[in-house]
């Protein structure tokens, strides 16, 4: 059963609450699904490790320069990133770019990146993928017990269940 949509399909509120909520939901996520558009127009999704930075509408990932994500973004910058855990999910639509700046790679470098890319941040085969988010949509449920109570209430009253929050947000 879907969550209650608090906005219409056409609305994207520029509400600080919405941006803060997206920031809160993305803050502890370590892995996200990055969806790119392939050369043949097909959507291609793969799990990627999110780099730990304060979410300001941008997301960062390490990748190989000749790998699928970087190649797809070079051809078509339209991307989507999804995260989710527990009862919360976030979908961020935006534009991706391949960043080769060594200083930025060194700034974001960590042991997780080193495990996948042992050649290090100075190697030209290592790039960053920057996702500049345009909009986000999130779903946040209050927990299993509250959700179950809401389902029982909906069944008893014959009304649609209202569980959690769903909002579409324009990102800065």
Automatic annotation (TrEMBL):
Residues 19-160 form the General stress protein FMN-binding split barrel domain. Pfam families: Pyrid_ox_like. Signal peptide: none annotated. It comes from the Bacteria. This is General stress protein 26. It comes from Klenkia marina.
């Amino acid at each position: 059963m879907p969550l209650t949509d608090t906005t219409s399909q056409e609305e994207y509120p520029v509400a600080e609450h919405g941006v803060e909520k997206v920031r809160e939901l993305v803050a502890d996520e370590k892995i996200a699904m990055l969806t790119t558009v392939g050369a043949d127009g097909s959507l291609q999704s793969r799990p990627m490790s999110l780099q730990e930075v304060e979410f300001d509408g941008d997301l960062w990932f390490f990748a190989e320069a000749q790998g699928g994500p970087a190649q797809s973004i070079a051809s078509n910058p339209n991307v989507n990133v999804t995260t989710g855990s527990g009862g919360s999910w976030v979908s961020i639509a935006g534009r991706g770019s391949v960043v080769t700046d060594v200083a930025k790679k060194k700034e974001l470098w960590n042991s997780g990146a080193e495990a996948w890319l042992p050649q290090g941040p100075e190697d030209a085969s290592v790039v960053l993928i920057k996702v500049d988010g345009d909009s986000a949509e999130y779903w946040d449920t209050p927990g299993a017990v509250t959700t179950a109570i809401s389902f029982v209430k909906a069944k008893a009253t014959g009304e649609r269940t209202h569980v959690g929050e769903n909002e579409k947000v324009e990102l800065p």
